[in-house]
Input
Amino acid sequence: QVQLVESGGGVVQAGGSLRLSCAASGSIFSIRAMGWYRQAPGKQRELVASITSGRSPDYADSVKGRFTISRDNAKKMVTLQMNSLNPEDTAVYYCNADVRRITTYWYTGYWGQGTQVTVSS
Output
């Protein structure tokens, strides 16, 4: 089994910062891409940022210059530093990882349970 556990959500005023972390655990052989998605009420889930070892991170246009994604391969962790938050960033944020399990030869996408980020104006 593979688990993704997120932490770091909360309530912050506009202009503030939050840091989200996600730790992967379980029968993991390797992790390819790791990323963060978000889903606001009444909207579809969207990619916020993703990172793959050896490649430059990808960001949604709406967060470029404000959010930074980083990864610690040894700890199997991905972090999203969010600065200059605005009310439009309010959403449930989900961690995602493409994982190859010890017992398989292919990669499968896994999701965390989600963490709420609320930005007040």
